[in-house]
Design brief:
binds 2'-deoxycytidine-5'-monophosphate, 234 residues, alpha/beta
Length: 234
């Protein structure tokens, strides 16, 4: 665990944000949701927004490699996305399962390299910052969306551990997948998310890094809550 002092603005009148970034299957979603529940804070799964954007782009028959970026940005700026508890809605349609496929994750990573698309999704993400506070997970929560977050955490785990976790999640849902294929997908996604020009996946300045390779979710949640309490006292 590598701790550096995060940026904290005690004068800020905005609700506090805990930003939890990390690569795919690092456990950030489970940790962030449980930290939010423990604190009674709102929760933003920014990856779900990128996944819905990918679904909307695919359904409109756009090929992200050749379409005009502004057309894609206009489309996702208008998408009728909402969260209803744990369900993700697109208008009246529950798309929670449709966006959780490996293919949708891959497509989300592809459209996420486009600066106009990221810009179109920025304010939508910031609107989740409401009292009493927000826990937000993604790739650029600490660096771009909420640079004034009072606590920034970068969750990591080895690619092998993440592939095994993903495999277990899929098996639990009755979906067969090969660990070797999942490992290859995770490495490709890390490469794309980490090397893009705009808002790449990286540990933000002032973020605490937590390697969850051999940590349970419970331990990671406790660690974040403890950090947050320390942060509030300092
Ligand atoms: O967290 P996830 O696996 O659901 O995210 C899916 C993809 O969306 C991810 O590979 C990259 C993109 N994404 C992003 O670029 N920025 C975010 N803040 C969240 C997700």
């Amino acid at each position: 665990m590598n701790a550096r002092s995060p940026i904290l603005d005690p004068q800020s009148s905005l609700p506090p944000v805990i930003a939890i970034d990390g690569p795919s299957a690092s456990g950030k979603g489970a940790v962030a949701a449980r930290v939010a529940a423990a604190l009674g804070f709102h929760y933003l799964d920014s990856g779900a927004i990128y996944r819905v954007a990918a679904l909307v782009i695919e359904r409109a028959n756009f090929d992200p490699a050749h379409a005009k970026q502004q057309d894609l940005a206009d489309l996702v700026a208008r998408m009728p996305l909402s969260f209803s508890g744990e369900r993700v809605m697109l208008g009246d349609e529950d798309v929670s399962d449709a966006i959780r496929t490996e293919d949708c994750g891959r497509q989300a990573s592809v459209i996420a390299v486009l600066p106009a698309v990221r810009q179109a999704l920025l304010e939508r993400q910031r609107a989740f910052r409401q009292t009493p506070g927000l826990v937000a997970d993604g790739r650029d929560m600490a660096s771009v969306v909420f640079p004034d977050a009072c606590l920034k955490v970068f969750l990591t785990a080895s690619a092998e551990v993440r592939a095994n976790r993903r495999h277990k999640q899929l098996m639990d849902k009755g979906i067969h997948a090969s660990i070797a294929q999942l490992l290859q997908d995770i490495r490709r996604r890390d490469e794309r998310d980490g090397s893009r020009a705009v808002a790449p996946l990286q540990k933000a300045a002032g973020a605490y890094e937590l390697d969850t390779s051999s940590l349970s979710i419970d331990h990671a949640v406790a660690w974040v809550l403890e950090r947050y309490e320390k942060q509030k006292r300092s």
